[in-house]
């Protein structure tokens, strides 16, 4: 697993605060501030990396499903779709599909009809709490109550081991587990952020300024757009 973590770092998919207040820090989707961030798509967007990751994930899933044939592989929108497709080939799945976000609350819905009794597997590129894959399972079953969702979810990377708190109906199977590796980053409420107190500026649109943000690990004074 350490080899995979090093691959992520070498590809520029990991940003860590350089302990220099000239560098900015990141604002997470939750609104909390942090001194670290992982953008898995910086690694998975390269086809050879996607292929290697999907093979590793499919092998890990096969060891759990123990010969159960997978009829459908679902990916979560949007970042989970490429690795779901790639892993689907390795798993010899018959169909690939995806859930979709709708409305202001970005509720997940399924528009695919899965015949009764066919086996469904959900795959993510990354999950933290497990909430998104659980909502995906719920959406698939809401439309297809006769489908057999296997009790495993695949994810290239997870932060909470194989039993994240939001995943109620399945075990998570991953390639990279930062919890197992002992890798974690601090998270603070904005009013309690010591980096803000020290003069570091928070960046909200992290992925839009990723290349500049990563440069700050080498040069903390490198300018980062604050859009």
Automatic annotation (TrEMBL):
InterPro entries: PRTase-like, PRTase_dom
Name of the molecule in the record: Orotate phosphoribosyltransferase
Species, as recorded: Candidatus Zambryskibacteria bacterium RIFCSPLOWO2_01_FULL_45_21
């Amino acid at each position: 697993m350490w080899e995979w973590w090093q691959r992520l770092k070498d590809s520029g998919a990991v940003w860590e605060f350089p302990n220099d207040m000239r560098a900015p820090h990141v604002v997470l989707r939750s609104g909390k501030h942090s001194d670290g961030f992982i953008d898995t798509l910086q690694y998975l967007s390269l086809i050879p990396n996607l292929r290697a990751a999907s093979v590793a994930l499919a092998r890990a899933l096969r060891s759990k499903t123990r010969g159960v044939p997978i009829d459908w592989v679902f990916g979560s929108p949007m970042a989970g779709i490429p690795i779901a497709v790639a892993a689907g080939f390795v798993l010899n799945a018959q169909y690939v599909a995806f859930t979709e976000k709708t409305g202001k609350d970005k509720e997940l819905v399924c528009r695919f009809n899965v015949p009764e009794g066919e086996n469904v597997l959900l795959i993510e590129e990354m999950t933290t709490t497990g909430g998104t894959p659980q909502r995906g399972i719920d959406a698939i079953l809401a439309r297809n109550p006769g489908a057999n969702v296997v009790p495993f979810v695949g994810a290239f990377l997870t932060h909470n081991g194989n039993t994240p708190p939001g995943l109620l109906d399945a075990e998570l199977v991953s390639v990279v587990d930062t919890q197992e590796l002992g890798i974690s980053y601090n998270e603070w409420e904005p009013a309690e952020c010591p980096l803000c107190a020290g003069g570091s500026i928070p960046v909200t649109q992290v992925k839009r300024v990723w290349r500049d943000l990563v440069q700050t690990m080498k040069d903390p004074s490198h300018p980062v757009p604050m859009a």
